Amino acid sequence: MANLRGPHLHTPLTLLSSDRDALSRVDPAMVAPGEDARYLVTRAGEASLREDESGALRVALETADPRGGAHQPLVLLGRRDGLRILAVEILEPSAELDDPGRDLRDLRRVADLMVPDDADLALTAVAMGAWHRSMRFCPLCGEMLEAEVGGWVLRCREDGTEHFPRTDAAVIMAVRDSEDRLLLARNTNFRGRFHSVLAGFVEPGESLENAVAREVAEEVGVTVEEVEYVGSQPWPFPRSLMLGYRAWVPGPVELTLQEDEIAEARWFTREELAAALVAEEIELPNTASLGRALIDDWYGGPAEV
Ligand SMILES: [Zn+2]
Q: How far is the CA of 75 from the centre of ligand 1 (A)?
């Protein structure tokens, strides 16, 4: 299968495993029931998963239409092994969809335990589910929207406007100083000892590189002089696309923290990071995240205790 990656970094959750078959979405038969249909149930960032014989997590594809009588759109995720893979988002608890036998797992927590081939399907299903969950009514007139084009377009019944899935660009950057130390911070929203590299959303009218420089200046008060793009990763919780950067600041510089966002931040040498992990002073993001890939990229291998 194709293995399309950013220019420098091995980014997790980016293996292109299934054929999205986007050109077939216009055929309504592609989201009709049939023997070649398999269904993947999602709910607010969770996907229906199963453990395979080796203990790895895979998507749990169902052969029967799980909607029962519920009126919910199906999304054509693509084809695999001659089968049509259709995603169904559970919007509200219902007798049909609330099957206690389903194992719905939060992908943010378990994506790194998934078979890579399946993580791609599950992330797309969760992303489209989040969109269908949030876009029920026309933002222009408030009328109901109806799914078209294999669930990838919503059209207003009243004014006919088309609405498309959105992705919010966010930059995430490993900031290094002239001594090759890495900046790690604890956001005020982070739990416990959790530390990561800085990140933030791209603002309208801004380039990605400017977003990196602005976020670093805002959050820790230092001026980035050089940035380098390394790769991207979908992070559909609910709809982000993470764009990863290495960034450099000249010389060792003092940090000025934006207090309502950054609880702690400091520069780490590799030895200091290793010691902080052993002493359990800090905890890093899990290996499914681009943040962790950026930290490991700087560290020169997996930064583990
Ligand atoms: Zn409308």
A: 21
Distance 279 CA to ligand 1 centre (A): 57
Ligand 1 centroid distance, CA of 154 (Å): 10
* Residue 294: strand, helix, or coil: helix
- pLDDT digit string (tens) for the chain, length 305 residues: 445 556 667 666 776 667 888 899 999 999 998 999 999 999 999 999 999 999 899 999 999 998 877 778 999 999 998 999 999 998 776 666 667 788 999 998 888 888 888 988 999 999 999 999 999 999 999 999 999 999 999 999 999 999 999 999 999 999 999 999 999 999 998 888 999 999 999 999 999 999 999 999 999 999 999 999 999 999 999 999 999 999 999 988 999 999 999 999 999 999 999 999 999 999 999 888 899 999 999 999 999 87
- My answer on whether 289 and 186 are in the same domain is yes
Domain count, the chain: 2
CB 215 within 8 A of CB 227: no
| Cα 144 to ligand 1 centre (Å) | 8
Whether 155 is in a domain gets the answer no
How much distance in Å is there from the Cα of 158 to the middle of ligand 1? 5
Distance 128 CA to ligand 1 centre (A): 20
**Structural domain of residue 126, as residue ranges?**
22-135
Q: How far is the CA of 155 from the centre of ligand 1 (A)?
A: 8
Residues 179 and 266 in one domain: yes
Radius of gyration of the chain (CA): 21
Q: Where are the beta strands (DSSP E) in the chain?
A: 37-43, 46-51, 57-59, 75-80, 83-89, 104-106, 145-148, 153-156, 162-163, 168-176, 182-187, 198-201, 226-235, 240-248, 262-268
How many Å lie between the centroid of ligand 1 and the Cα of residue 164?
Answer: 14
CATH of the domain at 34: 3.90.79
| Distance from the alpha carbon of residue 137 to the mean position of ligand 1, in angstroms | 8
**In a 3-state reduction of DSSP, which class is residue 242?**
strand
